[in-house]
């Protein structure tokens, strides 16, 4: 009886330990690639973009590699512009609001 209790206790303890172990971090998420040390040249970027435009008629940044996007950012002083159009939107987007001229704001007087 003692032997079966000891075996059962050992089996339960082992089951408890293995079920509570966390997965290794490398199994949970992909590991980033080594940091690139040298960006693509402007000519290389232009060449790849123009090549894609000739082949498919469009260029999709989602299809570009991380190194390609990083290179483009380094060549543009890390300036990134993001556009947005709601999914399923049909038609033209409203025109942009008119820009105010920079300078002194208009003076409003509260008295007559």
Can you offer a commentary on this structure?
The chain is mainly alpha-helical and 112 residues long. The protein has a domain at 40-81. The chain has four helices and no strands. It has helices at 2-20, 25-28, 42-56, 66-75. The termini are far apart. Keywords: Signal. Residues 1-24 form the signal peptide.
Low-confidence stretches: none
Share of residues in strands = under 5%
Mean pLDDT: 75
SSE pattern: HHHH
Distance between the termini: 104 Å
Subunit arrangement of the protein: single chain
State the major sheet: none
With helices defined by DSSP (H or I, 4 residues minimum), what is the helix count? Answer: 4
- The count of strands amounts to 0
Q: Structural class, from helix and strand content?
A: mainly alpha
What is the radius of gyration computed over CA atoms, rounded to a whole number of angstroms? 30 Å
What would the principal axes of the Cα set say about the shape? extended
Helix percentage: 40-55%
Compact summary:
The protein is mainly α and 112 residues long.
Summarize the helices and strands and which ones pair or pack.
Layout: H1 2-20, H2 25-28, H3 42-56, H4 66-75
Summary keywords:
112 residues; mainly alpha; signal
């Amino acid at each position: 009886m003692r032997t079966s209790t000891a075996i059962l206790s050992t089996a339960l303890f082992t089951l408890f330990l293995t079920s509570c172990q966390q997965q290794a971090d490398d199994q949970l998420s992909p590991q980033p690639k080594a940091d690139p040390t040298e960006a693509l040249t402007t000519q290389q970027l232009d060449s790849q973009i123009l090549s894609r435009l000739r082949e498919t008629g469009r260029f999709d940044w989602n299809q570009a590699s991380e190194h390609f996007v990083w290179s483009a950012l380094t060549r543009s002083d890390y300036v990134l512009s993001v556009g947005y159009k709601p999914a399923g939107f049909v038609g033209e987007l409203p025109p942009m609001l008119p820009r105010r001229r920079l300078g002194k704001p208009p003076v409003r007087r509260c008295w007559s």
